[in-house]
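Checklist before submission:
- one chain only
- standard amino acids only
- sequence pasted in full

Submission:
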Amino acid sequence: MNYNKILNKVLAEIKPTHKEVEEQQKVADEVIRKIKAMKGKPVDVIMVGSAARGSDLKGDKDLDIFILFPLTCDEKDLEKEGLKIGKEIAKGHKFERKFASHPYVKTEINGFDIDIVPAFKIKNIKDFKSAVDRSPLHQEFIKNNRKPGEGNQVRLLKKFCKSLDIYGAEMGTWGFPGYLCELLVMQYGSFIDTLKMAENWEYNQVIDIKKHYKSKSEILKKFNTPLIVIDPTDKNRNVGAAVSDNVFAKFIHYSRQFLEKPSEEFFKEKIIKEKKPNEIEKRLKQRRAKILVITTGFPKVPEDIAVSQLEKTMMKMKKMLEDEDFKTHRVAMWTNRKNHSAFLFEFEVWELPPVKVRHGPPLTIIKDQKKFLEKHKSGNVWIEGDRWATETVRKETDAIDYLKRMVKEMKSGKTRIPSHIEEVFNKKVNILDAKGIMKEYEKNEYFAKELTEYLYKRERFLEV
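Returned file contents:
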């Protein structure tokens, strides 16, 4: 099948114009010039990332400027000097202090979001001291090994993943990072060839471009993720580590879908149109399940840390509910990454009788059964199968009451949750029942889109 017509049209829409490339290079060159003119310890200043590699997408305004320090430099001096340089460059512009392996400055200059990141200059991965030190090595590897035209193929792959919401390694997405897209195209040769190979991928799919390992079995002793892509610059790193089971499966599925029936629609991001309130109310009633939503704020920490802590909190709450026999149908967490986050719990079982059966030890374990009988002899006790059984009184019989108590104990610290979530809980937290959900739906567009997506969840292009 000839895909060229579609891909050429898409590429024309997603490739930065000559003017855009000139503008970003002009800004980057000026920042680099200013840094090099400063007195200090850096040995080099370079631009890395997709803009430097010619694989960025039209409209992207992100520039990564790395200040490289000698290995002899003390790490605290690197951080101090790096922040000092970043703040000097950002003078007169909006900026914020961010954190990767080291603190760094993010600023906006002439419409471009610029990360000014300090790192150690290394020639061999054995010398690296932090994750950011790898980036210049990645830059050099791509530059020295990429074939002509592969940058555009990477652009197609990135846009494909972005449109399907499986791009980026950050928490909450667990998708394909940019460097991984670069390596896949390098391995397979083109966007289409990547999809053709992906449609037959199996779990523990291994790609080792530089042949660091002698066999797949040797790799599997060290890594166990759906997609294992050995970093050409570091044999001990799996570039595919962030890709979740879900994203891996989606990429295989959508690769098959596109190859079977190619369309420009695969490169267009999904637009969620919220339903009318009366449609949502009707949908909720049709489900005949109990849905509760907890709303809170968003922690004022780096996004990946905040999202990770939100996810951990949701999973802890789910486990606590299910430990008390409240059976969840589905759970979800969403956030606008600014000032609002929500946990949704949909229950199959949300009310329980006051008594439950508790099974004791097998009759063959004499010592344990004596203890069990001594403890429960005043109540109902019987033999069920090969074990003793009794009835006990439940601590919790109502999921709503239990969630309210759970949140209260999390706010007080009695039930431990990540510190930044405890902090936002103490500032703002609400538990919404059906009426509360509808009130939030009508006043909060972001909430409305997320709830619509939840209630009408459906993979795209299923008509293929």
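Reviewer check: The mean pLDDT is 93.
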